[in-house]
Amino acid sequence: MRPTKQIYSDYTEHDLLVWQVLFDRQMEILKPIVSVEYLKALEIVQFSNNKIPNFDEVAELLKPLTGWSLEVVPNISPQKTFFEFLSLKKFTATCWLRTMEQLDYLEEPDMFHDVFAHVPLLSNVKYVDFFKGMSDIALKHIHNPRAIDLLSRIYWFTIEFGLIKENNLLKIYGAGIISSMGETKHCFNGEVVQLNYDVQTIFNTDFRTDILQDKYFVIDSFQQLYESLGEIENLLEVELKKTIELH
Fold first, then answer.
1. How many domains would you assign to the chain?
2. How far apart are CA 112 and CA 98, in angstroms?
3. Blockwise average pLDDT, block size 10, the chain, 247 residues
4. Biggest alpha carbon distance in the chain?
């Protein structure tokens, strides 16, 4: 049974060692290729290799900046629950860690993915404004599978697997890349497709969750993401009308 509350005293020496190993080896790879905004955010939330993040302490750091906090969940949340919490500025996160035997692969997201990869950028205003805006749009269409499918593509190719251009260099900001050694090494290997961020193109692009990605979308800034919310909503309505007309 996965925990539904972070009881900090329950973490063991083994948990701390897992966090240290994951943190150190991923940071060694990430530093030259991850977004400067992520590195700044990592300092803001005071993440380090020698301490497992305390959710209450993180919330206190985020509160004056963006007002966001963490909501402990045992595993992946249902879409409706996930978007409802996001609209309340609460990011759902697990608080359990993988074992040493699971360092390189885990079927379900653990705390390292949820917290190390996602949480630092919750301190970035434009990033979370986009995050919340996406959830608000999703909640309007939560009972429409087609709408949720299209919005999931935006989420996948931005929040999870997005790249950003900084000083004419491609950098990583997507959490699915940040938390994965394999994905981090893979996304710049010269064989993958890198496309400029475009809402319609993303709506037309399916994805798989069980493989290393073969295409990534590149944004110019988190401001660009935020400013695309209106286009996302408008194009979503167009796509939903097409669906109705086909039936």
1. 1
2. 8
3. 90 96 96 97 97 97 97 89 93 94 83 95 97 95 93 96 96 95 90 96 94 96 98 96 75
4. 59
Q: Provide the CATH number for the domain around residue 162.
A: 1.10.800.10
pLDDT for residue 79: 86
**Residues linked to residue 196 through DSSP beta bridges, in sequence order:** 218
Q: In the prediction, which pLDDT does 153 show?
A: 96
User: Sheet holding 169-172: strands in order across?
Assistant: 169-172, 163-166, 215-219, 193-196
Q: Is 240 domain-assigned?
A: yes
Residue 2 resides in a domain: no
> Does some domain include residue 3?
no
What's the pLDDT score for residue 235? Answer: 97
Of the candidates 20, 197, 7, 204, the one whose C-alpha atom is nearest the C-alpha of residue 112 is 20
pLDDT for res 53 = 98
Dihedrals phi, psi of 128, to nearest 5 degrees:
-75, -30
CA dihedral 47, 52, 57, 62 (to 10 degrees): 40
Cα-Cα-Cα-Cα torsion 44, 127, 150, 212, nearest 10 degrees, comes to -40
Residue 115 lies in a domain: yes
pLDDT at 244: 76
The answer to whether 226 and 134 have CB atoms below 8 angstroms apart is no
pLDDT at residue number 224: 98
Angle, helices 125-140/229-246, rounded to nearest 10 degrees: 20
What's the domain range around 74?
Answer: 8-246
